[in-house]
């Protein structure tokens, strides 16, 4: 399989604006005595709740407008060749629907578990055979859940080569190669370095918390293992 560019992140200034919006909303939660354990098994000192964007009209409008502009510029054949947007259950449903509205495209969503029978049991909505879609979710760590979602879409006869997330941590080893090997290009509105920079500029983030975040950033795998999570 031909390897495409793996990740397209916005300009540093725009990524900083998205990170700042998340930080301003209080979407970045820092662990106290117990680390956060993601569904993927990774232990982390931080949890980013992008769902807070949903209830802030100004912030969500600004971020979704950025997403639509980015996709128009970076998804090949968007106007002529993309048939629909597919959102991930659950956060990807709202984000995907708002983006689909801006781009004038149909919207569907992918369930976490099948409901019904057949290859399309996880996909809610209707598409022609061989339709090309863009998959939307909120956050990615090591890329594995996005690969699994793409595999489910492909099993239903859908073509998917592009995935958009609000936040890509971008620090987990092997994620870039993993996505590229599956023919997926990841579009991220911001990344962990930009979010960490936003946290540094806030007085509420203590020196002890920043030191812990720096240790996590330097080696997220070792940090996870040391705090009861999975390794690479």
UniProtKB/TrEMBL annotation:
5-phospho-alpha-D-ribose 1-diphosphate binds at residues 111-112, 137-145. It catalyses: orotidine 5'-phosphate + diphosphate = orotate + 5-phospho-alpha-D-ribose 1-diphosphate. CDD domains: PRTases_typeI (cd06223). Keywords: Glycosyltransferase, Magnesium, Pyrimidine biosynthesis, Transferase. It comes from the Bacteria. Coiled coil: none annotated. Its EC number is 2.4.2.10. Its cofactor is Mg(2+). GO terms for biological process: 'de novo' UMP biosynthetic process; pyrimidine nucleobase biosynthetic process. Orotate binds at residue 141. Pathway: Pyrimidine metabolism; UMP biosynthesis via de novo pathway; UMP from orotate: step 1/2. One of its GO terms (molecular function) is magnesium ion binding. Catalyzes the transfer of a ribosyl phosphate group from 5-phosphoribose 1-diphosphate to orotate, leading to the formation of orotidine monophosphate (OMP). Homodimer. Belongs to the purine/pyrimidine phosphoribosyltransferase family. PyrE subfamily. This is Orotate phosphoribosyltransferase. It comes from Methylobacterium gregans. The gene is pyrE_2.
């Amino acid at each position: 399989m031909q390897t495409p560019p793996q990740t397209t992140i916005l300009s540093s200034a725009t990524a900083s604006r998205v990170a700042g919006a998340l930080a301003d909303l209080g979407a970045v939660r820092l662990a106290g005595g117990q680390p956060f354990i993601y569904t993927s098994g990774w232990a982390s000192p931080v949890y980013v709740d992008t769902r807070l964007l949903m209830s802030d009209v100004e912030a969500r409008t600004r971020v979704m407008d950025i997403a639509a502009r980015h996709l128009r510029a970076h998804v090949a054949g968007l106007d002529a060749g993309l048939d629909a947007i597919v959102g991930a259950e659950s956060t990807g449903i709202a984000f995907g629907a708002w983006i689909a509205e801006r781009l004038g495209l149909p919207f569907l969503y992918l369930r976490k578990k099948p409901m019904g029978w057949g290859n399309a049991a996880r996909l809610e909505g209707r598409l022609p055979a061989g339709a090309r879609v863009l998959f939307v979710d909120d956050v990615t760590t090591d890329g594995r859940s996005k690969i699994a979602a793409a595999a489910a879409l492909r099993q239903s006869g859908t073509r998917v080569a592009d995935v958009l997330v609000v936040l890509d941590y971008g620090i987990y080893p092997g994620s870039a190669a993993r996505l590229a090997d599956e023919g997926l290009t990841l579009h991220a509105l911001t990344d962990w370095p930009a979010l960490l920079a936003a946290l540094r500029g806030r007085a509420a983030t203590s020196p002890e918390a920043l030191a812990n975040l720096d240790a996590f950033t330097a080696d997220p795998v070792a940090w996870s293992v040391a705090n009861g999570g999975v390794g690479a």
